[in-house]
Design a protein that fits this description.
The chain is mostly helical and about 140 residues long. The chain has one domain (about 15-125). It has helices at about 15-40, 40-60, 65-90, 105-130, and strands at about 135, 140-145.
């Protein structure tokens, strides 16, 4: 038996999630170079985040499974938490970011990441009524969720 987590959902939500993930990726590209120079650890994290957002956008368009929505939500939530953390606490080599809440690329990235998180949440809500849990008695009968 296949899990609904890996089944294609064919949501129209992918048409929101994919562009938002691409905008999040694009918003990080201009700051990768400066961060690789000033704070290499953050520059590398931006490279990883950019690649992840592009991969998730492609995955959402090719096969929009609940696993894709879950990974997109996790990735973008962590990015938002990272943004908030760097605005509240002085990170090594990034002390000048503290209090700089309205840096244009930061606002763009957080906004697009928030759209990804909300869209993924809507996808989870949509499957909530369709998901079933099978009991372990062995007869395969579904239990309501």
């Amino acid at each position: 038996m296949r899990s609904f987590v890996l089944d294609r959902q064919a949501f129209t939500l992918r048409w929101v999630l994919a562009p938002a993930a691409l905008v999040a990726a694009a918003a990080h590209v201009p700051v990768i170079g400066p961060h690789l120079t000033e704070a290499p650890y953050m520059g590398v994290l931006f490279v990883v985040l950019t690649a992840a957002c592009v991969a998730l956008a492609v995955a959402a368009m090719v096969r929009d499974t609940m696993a894709v929505y879950a990974l997109a939500a996790l990735t973008c939530t962590l990015a938002i938490v990272g943004y908030i953390a760097t605005r509240l606490v002085a990170f090594p080599m990034l002390a000048d970011d503290v209090g700089n809440w309205f840096e244009p690329m930061g606002v763009l990235s957080v906004g697009s990441e928030a759209i990804v998180v909300v869209t993924a949440g809507l996808a989870f809500r949509a499957v909530g009524g369709r998901a079933q849990v099978h009991d372990s008695s062995g007869d395969g009968s579904p239990l309501p969720v």
